[in-house]
Amino acid sequence: MPNYVAKQLTRYKRKAPKRPQNCPFEPEPVVYGRKSQEMPKKVDGPPVSKEEKVYIQQVIGSFLYYARAIDMTILHALSAITAEQANPTESTMKRVKHLLDYMHSNPNAIIRFRASDMILNVHSDASYLTASRGRSRAGGYFFLGSLPRDDEPIWLNGNIHITCAILKLVADSVAEAELGALFINDQEAKIIHLILEEMGHPQPPTPIHVDNTTTAGIINNTIKRQRLCAMEMRYFWLLSQEAQKMLDVSQHPGAENMGDYPSKAHTAPIFRHVRPYFVHMKKLHLVLPRAPSPSSRQGCAETLGDPYIRGLPLPRIPISHKLKPDNGQTMSVQAAAKWTSRA
Predict the structure, then answer these.
(1) d(CA 146, CA 119)
(2) How far apart are CA 224 and CA 325, in angstroms?
């Protein structure tokens, strides 16, 4: 969609910012200590006028299709603003201007698809108590690739669907929030699964990555479920899907979960780091190395030499350079070039 963003910015009379804006949505300040789990006090300010309310709704409608089709990096910002569009305030207007400044700095997003084995892969994640009124947000990344194998890098591809939604029910725990996100993502995955089969692409049980051990244990029946009756009953529809071999849920470290980005707001440095994984850029990342398990760091006082840095999602090193997975083998540029040549 060339020049689409430029036309919208001209329509809304938003001039370019003095400095590039690399973050579509300003995250809440981090709170440490005893009050870290409490809901932040929201200061909205006075409500806006009717003309400004219409302006906010028009901006959301103009960029929502663009976000779903191409630039998924602004979905979280649009979702957060949409939750306030019925009764917008000056804080909402400030966030809209912040988003428009970001679109000025990143006007032409590109998404590229490559030839693959046409196996649906899903990365599911949730952020607990990060949405308004004590709710949680679900995130999901859907792409077509190969069947993932343990201790082997994951071949990435352009996304065919993104989940960025607020759970309707208030989750009582992180596990319930993760289970709710998995419930939403699997509903979408089942539809895509059937579409791919009708198109002539046989599908194995859809591999779904989660980063919560309790959620994976509930679905795979590796933990006792006597005390889970307090969780939402509909979420346990996933158990029947697992019994019918429609999904294959596996737990992996959250650092390698592609669904982490749309589930929460990030700062500008993290955004600049993860952007090449989601949209086509010069430093495009083609493969995703596996992150080591947290247990591998126990008793280790030195850096392990893996590409993941603590506190940052997705690996830091460019995948275009040589990569050494945990098994000691070397993946060179030729492996990535071979994948690109298949497109």
Answers:
(1) 5
(2) 34
Q: How far apart are CA 16 and CA 201, in angstroms?
A: 46
Burial 291-327 (b: 16+ CB within 10 A, else e): bbeeeeeeeeeeeeebbbeeeebbbeeebbeebebbe
Residue 137 phi, psi dihedral angles, 5° rounding:
-115, 140
Q: How far apart are CA 270 and CA 23, in angstroms?
A: 9
Question: In whole angstroms, what separates CA 94 from the centre of its chain?
Answer: 24
Out of 66, 81, 105, pick the residue that ends a domain.
105
Determine the longest span between alpha carbons in the chain, in angstroms: 62
CA gap 265, 271 in Å, rounded: 9
Q: How far apart are CA 247 and CA 3, in angstroms?
A: 40
> Cα–Cα distance between 168 and 207 in angstroms, integer?
25
Summarised one tens digit per residue, pLDDT across range 240-251 is 888 888 889 998
Count: domains in the chain: 2
| Host domain of residue 66 | 4-105
What does pTM read for this prediction?
0.82
Residue 33 lies in a domain: yes
What pLDDT, in 10s, does the model give residues 246-303?
Answer: 889 998 888 888 888 888 888 888 888 888 888 887 776 788 888 777 666 665 555 5
Phi, psi of 36 (to 5 degrees): -70, -25
Amino acid at 105: S
